[in-house]
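Crash report, auto-generated. Payload:
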Amino acid sequence: MSTTIMPETQASTGRRVAVAPVTLWRVVCSEWIKLRSLRSTRITLLVSFVLMAGLGVLAAAIAAGGYSRLPAASRASFDAVNTTLTGYQFAQLAVGVLGVVVVSNEYSSGMIRATLAAVPRRLPVLWAKAGVFAVVTLVVMTAASLIAFAGGMAVLSSHHLQVSLTAPGAARAVLGAGLYLAVVGLLGVGLGALLRKTAGAIAAVVGLLLFLPLLSSLLGSWFKAHISPYLFSNAGAALLRVHQQAGSLSPWTGFAVMCGYAVAALAAAALVLRRRDA
Amino acid sequence: MIEVHDLVKRYGGKTAVNGLTFTVQPGVVTGFLGPNGAGKSTTMRLIVGLDRPTAGRVSVNGKSYDQWAAPLAEVGVLLEAKAIHPGLSAYQYLHALAATHGIGTRRVREVLDMTGLASVADKRAGGFSLGMGQRLGIAAALLADPEALILDEPVNGLDIEGVRWVRHLLKDLAREGRTILVSSHLMSEMAQTADHLIVIGRGELIADTSVTEFIQRATVSNVRVRSPEGSRLRDLIAGPDVTVSSDEIGVLTVTGMTSDQVGTIAAEGGIILYELVPQASLEEAFLQLTQDTVEYRAPETSAELAGAGRNPA
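Recovered output after restart:
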């Protein structure tokens, strides 16, 4: 242990340590360091990647095997592209939870105080966390989506069911999977910052992603027609489909609705972050 | 300089800080003293804007903390040890904080060296002891070479060597003209470190005074006497204003009499003294001062407990 006293006994007048003003970009750099430093983050992202890329190939293999037994109507509506993107349903849980944890971890460990003492205007922290996580998710999951598509199509081509990326809607659906998952991540960050507690925020994310769509499908035809399409994950799912389902929103309208949820969560989080004690 | 003006903070119905006004001057170490729950940590959080004041205002070097472009260069703050994600290393934690102010990694290594953490810089902070956590907190506070330092109970959990190191560090930083506010609930620690004292209890200011003045004002003084004839001495010095207690065999603690008086009486009685030490009891003075403001207190005797039980509320 060093007992030496600071070497800069002359420091009070001339500033010895170069210090720059806090800017959004510098906060982004700080959040990027935190995100990439944590092993738990890297592992969860890897899990999401494997789910997205791997399950698509698996789903394609199962679909290819069962295709010959399908009735004609089902064959007509078979969505090869969407089948290869099946993994998103599982990856979204990992991504949503990770988005929550990126923020709620700081509250549970108390590190948020150091973070906000460094950035007392506070809001840049939220924007930086959201931005860094969304970009990382977008890059990683778009790559996973492309792999899922390529792998899945390789399997489907043995049954001559393959679709090329240049086919109408295919590229939109494949790249849309990355966008969809990035927005799920943003929703997680927003809810994490709003609720602060890991368990509560994870419950909220899972509720929005899985529970609400399930509930509304049980509630009868009126709900199915008027509420279901506007639910977070139902709205976003349209972006990943080439053959649209009856009653669902159009791909980009659905995506806009989905973004609305994330924006609302982040806006509420921003209000709370500014006003509450840390 | 840190200026606190009419500061009030309520959490729900509970008032944590109640109309505090004081100024922390540069160039000296200011001790921030008070019993547990007095509002020290709350006041410190209010100074750096982590909690929003219910009323009143705080300024740091002339501006509200959040108005500074590079706030860490104005105030370095240690609020609680080990407030760090357990999966981050000391280096990663400081690196992330440094990045917000464009501070280079050379400075990060420097504060790690300064605080004696260089050898564990790449270990996960989850495995840190309380003392290492304190050192890391101090490293973070020093990161931007700040004009002012606010440290909440920095010696908590440090070994003796670490306590001495903090004491020297604070004195050196004060000598450089910086503003130092350091809290403690231990008077004895403050007496050795601080030049000035701000004492609060139940969120209100009790004293704002130099340590020297505080010691002079400390009315209670004890005399420690070691003698082989303790019981005879006890009889000789007994009196209405004198209390004598004995915690160890052969040692008396006399209150209400000066060491001169005790020595004279002993000589007159022909009693051998091995030791005769006057002790200004700061701890005692502090207790007296804050007696009515202690938030959490254990009942002193069982009789008091029994009595409390009988009294109708």
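Post-recovery validation: Residues 301-313 of chain B have pLDDT under 50 and may be disordered.
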